[in-house]
Amino acid sequence: MALMLLGCAIGAYAFYAISAIAPVFFVIYFFVIYFVKETCGKELEEMAYE
Length: 50
Hints:
2 helices
């Protein structure tokens, strides 16, 4: 009985930890998509004037 309650507590804590950390990755991902400019194939001088 005690092991079952411990397993439920660990599972609930893991779910809470994942649901608290996951949005951080989504915010960083969308920030990169919308605000970081594409630099592939451009010279350094070209990027300086944008």
